[in-house]
Amino acid sequence: MADDPSDAPAVHLDLVDAPGRGPGPERDRELLGPDERARADRMPPSVREVWIRSRALLRTTVAPYLGCAAPEVRLARDGRGRPVLPDAPAVHVSLAHTAGCCAVAVSTAGPVGVDVERVRPLSLPDGLARRLLTPGELAEWDGVEAAERTRWLLRRWTWKEALLKAEGTGLRGGLHSFDLGWTPAGPWVRSARHRSRRWWVAEVPAGPLHVAAVARDRGMRTAS
Ligand SMILES: CC(C)(COP(=O)(O)OP(=O)(O)OC[C@H]1O[C@@H](n2cnc3c(N)ncnc32)[C@H](O)[C@@H]1OP(=O)(O)O)[C@@H](O)C(=O)NCCC(=O)NCCS
């Protein structure tokens, strides 16, 4: 899906379920600020460890870009919820978490978005597909083999959510507001809102239990 791999964002994926991965929740927690620790303490245990890992991973990943130690990385959100680094506005970050896995993307070349989903049974895949997909994408969905449908839909979900995170809108940007597909020549994004921009979208290898994708806004299209 990438039309220029040379400016691919760095993506760090951590499978939290995997034995021996990461330094462990207590060491990770030490990297967090007081507000983040308080937020973590309010979370159900089922999501807390992955969330703490995502913050620790983000801090350790971006610390070299800032030239500071991981606990000193200041992290904030913009008005729409996108994570930002107030001390390094040219370093763009994105993060995602799901059961057993978190992902962090870093880009110095433009806004970036990452998403990861656990591959899990979907109780009403057709209903989810209608919620997620445009009419054009639904036509594609109709042709997907029954055995492939769950993974297909979760993959498509990650592409779309990664793009909406790169855009900075999150889901408010509208999952139905664009068609997304790819050709060997590069990503194919069709919508009035996105037409003027160039997008880079790629899948991230995430093992058998997860699917993940990263997207980057490559700036305005130039007339050709
Ligand atoms: C941002 C959003 C796409 C996250 O999706 P999710 O599957 O629940 O969670 P993920 O783990 O994939 O991603 C969560 C991370 O996305 C990031 N994020 C939040 N808003 C963002 C935005 N506008 N742009 C980019 N990234 C964003 C945050 O870092 C968040 O993690 P954090 O809370 O630990 O900081 C989604 O929750 C959203 O759009 N929320 C905004 C509220 C909204 O629109 N609600 C109406 C739904 S129709």
Automatic annotation (TrEMBL):
Signal peptide: none annotated. GO terms for molecular function: transferase activity. It comes from the Bacteria. InterPro entries: 4-PPantetheinyl_Trfase_dom (IPR008278), 4-PPantetheinyl_Trfase_dom_sf (IPR037143), P-Pant_transferase_sf (IPR050559). Residues 24-42 have a biased composition (Basic and acidic residues). Residues 1-43 are annotated as: Disordered. Keywords: Transferase. Pfam families: ACPS (PF01648). Residues 111-199 form the 4'-phosphopantetheinyl transferase domain. Belongs to the P-Pant transferase superfamily. Gsp/Sfp/HetI/AcpT family. PANTHER family: L-AMINOADIPATE-SEMIALDEHYDE DEHYDROGENASE-PHOSPHOPANTETHEINYL TRANSFERASE, PHOSPHOPANTETHEINE TRANSFERASE. This is 4'-phosphopantetheinyl transferase superfamily protein. It comes from Streptomyces pseudovenezuelae.
